[in-house]
Design brief:
With about 270 residues, this protein is an alpha/beta fold. It contains 11 helices and 12 strands. Helix content is about 35%, strand content about 25%. α1 packs across α10 (about 240-250). The longest helix is centred in the middle third of the chain and has 16 residues, at about 130-145.
């Protein structure tokens, strides 16, 4: 790639935002051209390198997303659902690739991204890592091979700062298991157990969420039958894997036709 796409990072001060900034700055394939934070945030008006405790990098954080996006070929966005919807509209106006790692979006919010995807490339995934997306494909295949004698449980663990549950990755895995079985996840998901819940319903796909410490992300898909269990597992120990995947998606999207894509497309899986 002779031209280095300009990348804007939203939610710049967050854990993922800072990791994304570092990943783009360290890359020889892209250039950091903008960083966006909410109005009134202490980072606004500061060089992001200085705000992160280092040297100046020549990019000042702004609360004017439209102005920042107008200079970019891609926007990488790990923020909140409401913010992501606004950023999608602005990225589409700028015809910039919009890479969305935001989790906790409702079906209605996901559907609301469609108008933006008519004008620009939109890559959305609950998890940007190669390993997790391989796990999604394996989950689909195993679920398709096993009947309902095998109960399916998706077990996920994250740091105590995470605000949504189940995680976006857990829902990706649940969707894959449901697709493998030829059912809709919304019809078989068991997402909350407390008190006297009764016996597990045959065919349900259960979710268990663990929150604690600084766990980056761990996901198990358990297939449990009488006398045997199969466990598919992915453990992330470094948040950088998500940032590298997001940058890969931003680079992959250059020159693609407008539309909605995911990491399966990016990784060729």
């Amino acid at each position: 790639m002779t031209h280095k796409p300009g990348i804007v990072i939203t939610g710049a001060s967050g854990r993922m935002g800072q990791m994304l900034i570092k990943t783009v700055l360290d890359s020889d394939q892209a250039t950091l051209v903008g960083a966006v934070e909410r109005s009134g945030h202490p980072w606004v008006g500061q060089d992001v390198g200085v705000a992160m405790g280092g040297a100046e990098v020549g990019v000042v954080a702004t609360d004017d997303a439209l102005e920042a996006f107008s200079k970019a070929q891609a926007v990488i966005d790990f923020t909140a659902p409401e913010a992501t919807l606004q950023f999608a509209e602005l990225a589409a106006q700028a015809r910039a690739v919009h890479v969305i790692g935001t989790t906790g979006m409702t079906d209605e919010q996901i559907a609301a991204l469609a108008p933006a995807a008519r004008h620009a490339v939109l890559v959305r995934a609950g998890n940007m890592s190669l390993g997790v997306n391989l796990l999604v494909q394996l989950t689909k295949k195993v679920a398709a091979a096993l009947d309902e004698d095998f109960d399916i449980e998706v077990i996920e663990a994250h740091h105590h700062h995470k605000v949504d549950a189940p995680s976006g990755t857990a829902l990706m895995l649940g969707e894959a298991a449901a697709e493998g079985r030829g059912v809709e996840l919304k019809d078989v998901a068991d997402r909350a157990r407390d008190g006297i819940t009764g016996a597990r319903k045959r065919g349900d796909i259960g979710f268990t969420a663990i929150r604690g410490g600084d766990i980056v992300g761990e996901h198990d898909v358990l297939f449990a039958a009488a006398g045997e269990r199969i466990v598919l597992r992915h453990m992330a120990t470094d948040r950088a894997i998500f940032a590298r995947g997001a940058l890969k998606a931003a680079l992959w999207g250059q020159g693609k036709a407008p539309g909605e894509y995911d990491m399966v497309d990016v990784l060729g899986l």
